[in-house]
Amino acid sequence: MADHAWWQRGVIYQVYPRSFQDSNADGIGDLRGILRRVDYLEWLGVTGVWISPIYPSPMADFGYDVCNYTAIDPLFGSLEDFDELLRELHGRDIKVILDFVPNHTSLRHPWFEASRSSRTNARRHWYIWRDPAPDGGPPTNWQSEFGGPAWTFDAPTGQYYYHAYLPEQPDLNWRSPEVRAAMYNVLRFWLKRGVDGFRVDAIHMLIEDESFLDNPPNPAWQPGQSPARRLLRTYTADLAETHVCVAGMRRVLDEYPDRVLIGEAYLPIPRLMLYYGESLSGFQLPFNFHLIGCRWNAPTIASLVREYELALPDGGWPNWVLGNHDKSRVVTRLGGIPQAKLAALLLLSLRGTPTIYNGEEIGMADGEVPADRVQDPWERNVPGLGLGRDPCRTPMLWDEGANAGFTDGTPWLPINPPAAGGSVAAQQADDRSMLSLYRRLIRLRRQEPAIAVGDYREVAVTEDVFVFERSFGARRLWVALNFSASFQHLATLAGAVVLLSTGARSSHSSPQDAARLEPYEGLIAEAPL
Ligand code: GLC
User: Is residue 449 in a domain?
Assistant: First the structure.
């Protein structure tokens, strides 16, 4: 395994800091809260922690609107707290990945305040300014991802500025060499401090076409979907020049040893692959979100893995994700804990780096957020369509105490009813829990090069069962997944020695008849001879 980098061998864990652990009773998670949970992260066995934005921000989009890229918001703590957290995590051999938000700043960033101050300000061109259309309206029909036009008129200088997201998140102009240089220096600031990498936000939105033509209508749009999707994003997303900027970020990372650049892009597989860059000059891990949206059955998932594996560029390293702070939680999507256990086994046994979203490991479901407690601006702008992301951001359930051990104050989002399997504390004590399964899977991955870095081969696919092989040298392991609610019999599995199972046989390692899979059971076994 020594031939592989930590971000290839390891498991990444996403901390959404607002909801992870509060330390000062303001109801919002913070860095000292994460510090309190460092032992837990070590116990779980993760290799790296990605922390969603902790920079100073007016919090219009909960930190994804940054007004200072090289500081910490007092809500989360201080730079000293951050350095301490970095030391503590590094001391336990856990890497630290920060969120980098290059597409837009906050409206309150001094760069934007300068830019909007006059048409002749030296920073005017750091953002995307355009004259009104002849009728005085927005320059194009471009739509904000969060609803409404993507252009906001700024009366003092008589022009519109562009924002792919909220009006409070003006887009930076990445065609400006000065913007690029400034943003690359932001990366250096954190890399020098010892940060091990970045998850780069909304990368496909980085560049807009200079023709400023209207986006065409999307014939596939259906009522109930996001209003922004009424239009195709022909001139506003996934433009070729983006790759030049990503390569620039990567060159900065490569000035430091052993760092990782991860990109957030929701794109079809062939488009996503381009984000590895020419000769792998781009992201080491362009996030693969395809398990989040796909239909959940054996043939669909087997063909997704096949398509993804085949599409990878030479030397490109795969990765898989089940959820994050923007998507409905996996238990809710799949309809139950047994299904989510199966998903966990899939995530942690496929070839490629897995990313776990905090709470997934205890089977947290989407929380109920009453209308008067809605926080997410997307839900506020476009209510009732289920686009809001509060449900997947409710606080972590640590124990059975008040506010689930998350805060001594009033939590910023309601505390979920206890996860079906209970809190972290309850699940740590239960061998059969989701959490114990995650921990065992992570350990097995560490012990078995076949799973961590081995080859992938499809073995069998039926309507209900998917079996694949992971191998390293002479070691061959089979992963068998029953996607159905009934027992399945698969003769090819007979005689295989089960190492781990999501089902009732979970803690056994003695030879079992692997050929009979329980409902929703997933197992890892030594391949039959
Ligand atoms: C990304 C983030 C999301 C944020 C958006 C705008 O998709 O994950 O939370 O709202 O970018 O920054």
Answer: no
- Going by C-alpha positions, the residue among 159, 157, 117, 112 that lies closest to residue 137 is 159
DSSP category for residue 234: T
Q: In whole angstroms, how far apart are CA 216 and each of 159, 221, 339?
A: 24, 12, 39
Residue 339 to residue 516: CA distance in whole angstroms = 17
Token couple for 355 = 């990313």
Give pLDDT tens digits for 209-223: 999 999 999 999 999
Q: 201 CA distance to ligand 1 centroid (A)?
A: 6
Tens-digit pLDDT profile for residues 268-283: 999 999 999 999 999 9
Verify that 77 and 190 share a domain, yes or no.
Answer: yes
pLDDT digits (tens, 9 = 90+) for 157-199: 999 999 999 999 999 999 999 999 999 999 999 999 999 999 9
How remote is the CA of residue 506 from the centroid of ligand 1, in Å?
37
Shortest-distance Cα residue to atom 7 of ligand 1: 202
Residue nearest to atom 6 of ligand 1 (CA): 64
- Note whether residue 1 is domain-resident: no
Q: Which helix (H) or strand (E) holds 347?
A: helix 337-347
Query: How far is 215 from 217, CA to CA, in rounded Å?
Result: 7
- pLDDT > 90: what percent of the chain? 95
| All residues at 6 or more sequence positions from 165 whose CB lies less than 8 Å from its CB, including other chains | 61, 64, 103, 104, 144, 145, 146, 202
10 Å CB burial of residue 344 (0-12, 13-18, 19+) is: buried
CATH classification of the domain holding 195:
3.20.20.80
Amino acid code (one letter) for 287: F
Token readout for 36 is 């309190």
Model confidence, pTM? 0.97
- Residue 100 φ then ψ, to 5°: -120, 125
In this structure, the answer to whether residues 263 and 182 fall within a common structural domain is yes
Give bridge partners of residue 170 from the DSSP assignment.
none
CB-count burial class (<10 Å; 0-12, 13-18, 19+) for 93: exposed
CA 195, CA 213: separation in Å to the nearest integer?
A: 40
Number of folded domains in the chain? Answer: 3
Q: How far apart, in Å, are the Cα atoms of 208 and each of 88, 140, 439?
A: 41, 12, 43
Same domain, 202 and 145: no
Q: Is residue 170 part of a domain?
A: no
Backbone angles phi, psi at 357, to 5 degrees: -95, 130
Mutation test residue for ligand 1: of 19, 105, 107, 201, the one with most atoms within 8 Å of CB: 201
Provide the pLDDT for residue 319: 98
Q: Distance (Å, rounded) from C-alpha 324 to C-alpha 356? A: 8
Q: Range of 151's domain?
A: 110-162
Entry field: residues in the chain: 529
CB 385 within 8 A of CB 224: yes
Number of helices (H) and strands (E) in the chain: give both, helices first: 16, 18
Residue 61 Cβ contacting ligand 1 at under 6 Å: yes
| Atom number, ligand 1, closest to the C-alpha of residue 266 | 7
Same domain (yes/no): 130, 191: no
Predicted pLDDT at 512: 61
Looking at residue 181, its amino acid is A
